[in-house]
Amino acid sequence: MRSLKDTQFSILELAPVRDDKSIQFSLHHALALAQKAESLGYKRLWLAEHHNMDGIASSATAVLLGYLLANTHSLKVGSGGIMLPNHAPLVVAEQFGTLATLYPDRVELGLGRAPGTDQLTMRALRRGRQETEDQFPQDVMEILQYFKEPAPHQRIVATPGQNTHVPVWLLGSSLFSAQLAAKLGLPYSFASHFAPRMLGQAIQLYRDNFEASEYLDRPYISMGVPTVVAHSDEEAAYLATSAYQRVLGLMRGQSLKLKAPVESMEGIWTPAEKMSVNNFYAMSQVGSPETVKAGLEDLLAQYEIDEFIFTCDIYDTDKRIENFELLMDIKNA
User: Fold this and answer.
1) pLDDT tens string 41-95
2) Phi and psi (nearest 5°) for 315?
3) How many Å separate Cα 271 from the centre of its chain?
4) Model confidence over 274-325: pLDDT tens digits?
5) Is there a smaller number of Cβ atoms within 10 Å at the N or the C end of the chain?
6) DSSP readout, 203-260?
7) SS3 for 82?
8) Burial letters 120-141, b for 16+ CB under 10 A, else e
9) How far is it, in rounded angstroms, from Cα 227 to Cα 236?
10) How far apart are CA 292 and CA 298, in angstroms?
11) What are the beta bridge partners of residue 79?
């Protein structure tokens, strides 16, 4: 069985906005986290595209990636993901081709097939365009071609983009992208940090149907895991209430800004809401290093994945950085 030492550790960053801080603070903190991740030996740090959400500052994903790349040296940085229905494939290829040209061998492109926002914002993003999720496979194929050597008589060439061979991942929270990733021989990342229900099925489907390709000779799977690691189970449980309040805000259609932790969630959520938040965070690891180590080993034994990609919604930015320090201590122990 694979050990934690042999499993890649990565970070998914949403540039969370605190209720008492500016968006600029969040963007600067994203860089501080990327620099810390690089020094700790994390494999990669990805940014997630979301729109019209007051608590998430990573909407202009490619722009923020440029800021992180310019101020780090070796860390692989990418999108987890670009929500492809919102974008023309050529524009995505040109943006990431530009980043890859400036920062060779460091840029990755994770692609999702959902819009990552509400219906009204989706229409604003797609103004004048009719693309739907059904076009996702075709758009993925188009992007893959833009990153290669142009084919003879290829009339549209991504410049920059051509010959950059940016690594492309498919992301998913259901079975569709797992099947497509298997067919195309691409690495696959499951969004179990917020939608864990179909994780086992998606992994099995991907493995069973994987076809070796120019990109991969064997399946490669990462899974999202929300984390709150602190020096004791009690401290972690306290810090985790910020994450619970954030998900509760999402479910209620309220602000997603990070709120300070509270001593107890009782009186804040209803029993039904508590159950929904717990389902949302079914894969979360909250506790001391010893508790989280045991939890991650259980996940590894059950799913046999290649990589964990961690999220964290701790309010205190120093404690948030410490979360990722403690995770790497767990890996290296």
Assistant:
1) 999 999 999 999 999 999 999 999 999 999 999 999 999 999 998 899 999 999 9
2) -70, -50
3) 29
4) 999 999 999 999 999 999 999 999 999 999 999 999 999 999 999 999 999 9
5) N
6) HHHHHHH----SS-SS--EEEEEEEEE-SSHHHHHHHHHHHHHHHHHHHHT---SB--
7) strand
8) ebbeebeeeeebeeeebbebbe
9) 9
10) 10
11) 47, 109
Question: For residues 98 and 172, what is the distance between their CA atoms, to the nearest angstrom?
Answer: 26
Helix (H) or strand (E) holding 9: strand 8-13
Question: In the structure encoding, which two tokens stand for residue 53, read together?
Answer: 């959400």
Tokens at residue 111, please? Answer: 């692609």
| Chain length of the chain | 333
pLDDT digits (tens, 9 = 90+) for 93-126: 999 999 999 999 999 999 998 765 667 766 776 6
- Please state, in angstroms and rounded to a whole number, the distance separating the CA atoms of residues 309 and 2: 16
Q: Which residue has the tokens 């997603």?
A: 256
Contact 249, 7 (CB under 8 A): no
Three-state SS for 61? helix
Residue identified by tokens 């122990």 is: 333
**Cβ atoms 37, 322 nearer than 8 A:** no
Give residue 100's identity as a one-letter amino acid code: A
User: What are 300's two structure tokens?
Assistant: 């590894």
Residues 21, 257: Cα–Cα separation, whole Å: 10
Contact 19, 318 (CB under 8 A): no
**Which superfamily is assigned to 8-332 in CATH?**
Luciferase-like domain (3.20.20.30)
Q: What is the CB neighbour count within 10 angstroms for residue 177? A: 28
| DSSP E strand stretches across the chain | 8-13, 44-47, 76-83, 107-112, 168-172, 188-190, 221-229, 285-287, 307-311
Buried b (16+ CB within 10 A) or exposed e, 216-251: beebbbbbbbbbbbbeeeebbbbbbbbbbbbbbbbe
C-alpha–C-alpha distance, residues 170 and 180, integer Å: 8
Place of tokens 């991969």: 216
Q: For residue 90, with 0-12 CB atoms within 10 Å meaning exposed, 13-18 middle and 19 or more buried, which class applies?
A: middle
